[in-house]
Amino acid sequence: MLDQSTSEQRRAPLYTAAQRIRRDSTPWTLVQGVLAPVQFLVFLISLGLVIRYLMTGSGLEIATASIVLKTLILYTIMITGAIWEKVVFGKYLFADAFFWEDAFSMIVIALHTFYLVLLLGGIGSPELQLAVALAGYAAYVINAGQFIWKLRLARLETTHTQGAAA
């Protein structure tokens, strides 16, 4: 059985030294750092509005508007995230370090886009549309967890690197 220090040594670093410098110097890192909590706050508010509508039957318009806003923020964070990934890793999506997060992001985007297709196409009942939105929200929570885990790994890696240099 491997001890934790051995398994950490075998894991490839999330960033090379050059990638870490690019990550820390690009303004896209700050953009991502601002958009992520904004998106999460909009998600929480929207989730509450959707649940309120499903429980009471009132507030469909505001719930719908909140889902559309959440989706627009999602598109924005995906586009700016792809730019960030290009600057840091040299490719717009699916860099090795974030492959699975990007892959799951595609599911999140697909579900949110499907919601918009249903909404704008007048397809299905509001309950069906909201069920699709909630599926997108569930996928978003998983995806957010993936990114939070990577952020934690990056911080641990940075701490470990700084500790080794001292």
Give a description of the structure:
The chain has 166 residues and is mainly alpha-helical. The protein has one domain (18-165). It is 84% helix and 0% strand. The chain has 6 helices and no strands. The chain has helices at residues 4-10, 17-25, 27-56, 60-89, 99-121, 126-165. α4 (60-89) packs antiparallel against α5. The longest helix is centred in the last third of the chain and has 40 residues, at 126-165. The chain is elongated, with a radius of gyration of 19 Å. The two termini are 30 Å apart. The mean pLDDT is 89.
Architecture blueprint of SSEs:
Layout lengths: L3 H7 L6 H9 L1 H30 L3 H30 L9 H23 L4 H40 L1
Instruction: Write down the secondary-structure element order.
Output: HHHHHH
Specify the number of helices.
6
Poorly predicted runs: none
Q: Can you give the mean pLDDT?
A: 89
Name the descriptors.
6 helices; mainly alpha; 166 residues; elongated
Summarize the structure.
The chain is mainly α. Helix content is 84%, strand content 0%.
